[in-house]
Every structure is written in C-alpha cells, then in structure tokens.
DNA sequence: CGCCTATCCTACAACGTTGTAGACTCACCT
DNA sequence: AGGTGAGTCTACAACGTTGTAGGATAGGCG
C-alpha cells in the first residue's frame, strides 16, 4: 500500500496538515520540523495521491488533445510538440483520436468522457464552420486547425492564406507559370484546402497570371494515395503544367511519385512544393520543398492559452485568434529555375 | 458549477446512494424510481466526477504509454493502435515522450509523475538488458520492444529473429545472393538490431550462403539519414550486392534514395526490403517491400495484459512473453527475380 | 399467524487531500 | 504589565464518490 499523509505525519510526529504544508512549500515551518517531515517522506517513499488532490482542488493537471489520427504524420508531429510544450508547463496530455469524423468529434465535445482533464485542445477535421456553436462548451477549449473560424473559443492556427501565397510565389520566382494545385476541396471556402487555394489565387493575381480551373485537382482526403491519383488524372487529361503545389507534403509526395513514374524530371520539368515540413520530405528523392507552418509555435501557444483559460486569470477575455509564423523551405524539388 | 449526486438526489427525491446505484446499474431498483433518477440526471446534465470516483476506487481508468518520440513514424502508429485498443477496453491513454534517452526512461520508472495512471506501457530505447532490474516497480508495467528480454514484467514484442529471417529468405527466393544489411548496431546481441541481424544470418545459413561482414552497415540511429549515409558508404567502399535488407522502413527508404541517385535500378539491380510496414512505404517510388510486425496485435495484447495485471485477476502469475505474428509484404522494391 | 427471504431504499463512513479558523508561543512595543 | 503581531502548528470540515450495514415493506411458507 502506498503511504499517505497520515503515515508520514505519524512517522514525523506532526499533524497531517503540517506534512501537507511542507509538501506545498508553505512558508512558516521551523527548519527542524521540515527536516523531520522530509526524512519521513523519503523513508516511506510517500508521494501524493493525485486523485485526492484533484478532488480537493478541482484540477487534474491533465489536458486533452483530440486529433484525427496519429498515423497521419502531421498530427503525430503536432502531438509530439504539444506533449513537449505541456511538459514545460507541468501538464500531462491525454490523446483522443476522432478519425476526422464529424459525429465522433461532436461526441467528444458533448460526452463527459474527458472529465478527468482540465481542458481540451481540439483539432477537428470533419466539423465545418456551421458547427461552430458546438464549441460552446462549459470547459476550457482551444481550437486548432483551419476548419472553423470566428468560433466562440480561442483559436490557434497557421497562416494558411499567406503561406500558400508564399509557396506559390516561390514557384513563380523560379519562372514557373502553369502551377497545378493538388488537394482542393470542392466548394470549400473555410478550411485548410479553401484557404490555401485562396492564397494560391492571390499569388497568381499579384503576378498577373490568370487562374485556370483545369490546373486544380480536387481530392476528398489528403493521403498519399489522393495525391497520386490526382496527378494521374492531370496527366491523363493532358493538362500542361511546369509546377505543382501540394496542399500538404503527403499529397506532394504522392504526386511526385506519379510524376517520376511518368518520366517527368523534378525539378527540371516540374517543380514541386508541399506544405507542413514533415520529416519525410527531408529524405525523399528529390527532397521536398515545403512550408514550415510553425508547428512548435502553434503547440506552445495553444498550451499557453489553454492554461490561461484554465487558471481563469484572463476572466472574460473574448476569444482570440493566433497565427503562427511560417517559413518557405526550399529543397531540391523546386531548386531549379524553369 | 457541475451537478453532483447530491443535486440529482434532491431533484429526484431519493438518497444520494440510490442515484449512485442507478448509475452503476445496481439490480434492485424499482422501474419508476430509476426512471425519475434518469430524468433528473438528464435534466441537470449530471456526469460523475472522475477524481472522486478514482479516489474512492483506487482506479483512474487511464494508462500511461512511454515511447521515445511521436515524430518517429513507427511509434506514432503504435501509439495510435494502442489508443484504439485502450478505447475498446474503456481506458484512456496518457503519452510520455522519453526521447529514447536512458536516464529519462529510468526517471519515468522511478518518479511519481504518473500517479494518475493505473499502469504503464513502456517502450524503452536507451535502456539495455542490464537495466532490467529497474523494471521492478510497484505498479503494473508491461514492457514493449526489443531492448530487454527476460525482465521481471510481462513483455509484448514482435518476432524479430523469425521475421528478419523471413525478410532475408524472401530476398533469397528472388535469386539474390549478396544481401547488404543496413542498421546493425556494433556488438549488440539483444535489441531490435541484434535480433534482426541474427535472423538475417540464420536465413543465410539455411541457404548455405556464407556471411560476409563487409555487407553489414552499422548505424547508431535508425533515421532516414542513417540509411542514406550507410548506403553511400557501401557504394563508396565498392562492395558488390544485389539486395538490401533495411532493419526498418525508414532506413530502407533512406538507402533507396541513395541507390537511385547512384543510378541503381530497384528492384532490377538491387532488391530492397524494409521492416515495420509504415504507411510511407506504401507510396514510395518504388513501393517498399516490408515486414508487417503485427502492430495491432501488439497493441491489443499489451493493453489486454496490462488490464489483467491492473485488475489483479491473475494474481502472482509469473512474467509472460508474447510474440505477435508477422507477415512478409511484397511490393515493388523486391518484386523481380534477379 | 409468525417467520423468513427478497426487494428497495437510506444513513453513515471512508478514500487522501487542502482551506479555514484558531490555539499557542515568543518577541517586541507601549 | 498588558497588548500586538508574527511565526508555528493543529483540528476540523469539505471535495464527490461508493461500500457496508441495516431499515422498511411485501410476499411466500410452514
């Protein structure tokens, strides 16, 4: 059986509360009392019962993180960053996988399954902007991602429009003029796909190049297979292009594969850039140019903001939006001018 | 404020304990009483306080998972599988990252930081067999991975030797005779690298082929960069080979990249097989043959065994070893006979 | 008719912790 | 000498839940 405050108190010849005070660094304790208590703690190998502490304090020191799937590299890396950020602030992270499924996401918001957390970092994929009102919950919630904007909670996101514009501008700076896009979502305005497409169009416009619908490939998901399939369709349709903007690295890698099978040289014939800065792109053949969306900054901000909401220090501060700084990373896949 | 049993009891006109009984499906409750309580619960939006429940029952319903890094694809996918397996059994998962660092791993075993979990799934990377005694802890612990064998706890692992033998045999069956290995660890006997090298040698021996030390490339880590560097060294040393066994997919992908840069055709000139069945290998160019180590089975077994230890049903059952079933997956990288 | 058992419900204590209120000592000031 | 205040410590209650013991009612049996 684990030792309790009572056992330590008995061993040290003091009251339970004094032991509690020692543990919580209460100021006014005589040095020798403190010493005796510390010794008793060490001897009995005492450590506080966190359930009891939580019951008393109403805090668990645990935050929840809901992501679609850890097998999606972006979310695995995000989760890793968040765990590190949480650790720096003395918090533990409990991870839920939603599968990117809207009903599963709503269930997580409403069900009492995460009663053992102080708050939630929520990265939905299936929900859309019309679901924003579901974010009105009675626990601290910080929204991640690009599915919902202007919701009732704090929101940490990447600069989708601007970084997509920068990615496109990067390809333009290499002299590319017919830039295909892979991963658009039919009719989407808000959401990673919609915003990144918007950035793409802005860059074209600034360069005085007409937007050509035939260069846009639509997919439902953002897996490698989707990137590969889209590229196959573009090639079969006989669309001419000298560059590809993959809406994420995974799509770009899938597209690259098909391009190479078809005998197109990268970057000589077609320059490629992705989005996310996954580890994988650093070792692909050729290495993949990409956008570093500032994952560590997103993680750090999200945890910080959630902790502020949990502590209640910020009172009734209205919902805030945070955009992480991004960076264009040029690698082999876009190194050559056309 | 969240509703408590007391509030519900008051609203339903029954005792606190009756509400508790309704929630816990106690048998002898009159239908109409139950009905009234349920209504009160629904109306007040009551949900149990898990801290209080934990304090009372001594169980939290949370298990810990300690892995090196979620940015390593294998562990991200393993974590995903484990979360799903845990969910099926009504458990939540709290993830720690050790960084694969021995001292950090030991700290997790000794420190009281995971007092809020009922048990731990532990996948060390830095610890070695001599550290086995550190696994003697006073909480339920299930060991994962290949770093330690014969320790004092239950252990779930993949069939390293046999599946490495099967991978090698697969290459042999394609007529390959000079099979390079990438990812060996100098002097290691136990551990993924040592065991897989052993399987490689067994397969050679069975085929009556001499083991050639010059075909073995040593690395300290198993990242893509290591696979790439090893392959560069092999090529520079002028060693002849017609196949490569990468000790994991990441190494194999790194090696493939360098092979292609050097103008070797895969699988025509060099057949390649990896190990882990990562999603990435399914979309590489060419697609990567690999070993499916039975990740879901590992996850499911690990969670099941841990839950058994937690419930104490198994009493003083001695430590058990579990080996998941593996499978050779042939893809393009090894499809052609030499 | 009285006893026994099954059903349905309640009061109370306990899990281990921390906040509150207050007791006691001692030095210091008026 | 009495009052004040800081320092040190303790007793008690409370957080919300569940196990234990037992009370009340009703039906079945000898």
Automatic annotation (TrEMBL), chains A, B:
It comes from the Bacteria. SMART domains: HTH_LACI. GO terms for molecular function: DNA-binding transcription factor activity; transcription cis-regulatory region binding. Keywords: DNA-binding, Transcription, Transcription regulation. InterPro entries: HTH_LacI, LacI/GalR-like_sensor, Lambda_DNA-bd_dom_sf, Peripla_BP_I. Gene3D superfamilies: 3.40.50.2300, lambda repressor-like DNA-binding domains (1.10.260.40). Residues 3-57 form the HTH lacI-type domain. Pfam families: LacI, Peripla_BP_3. This is LacI family transcriptional regulator. It comes from Arthrobacter agilis.
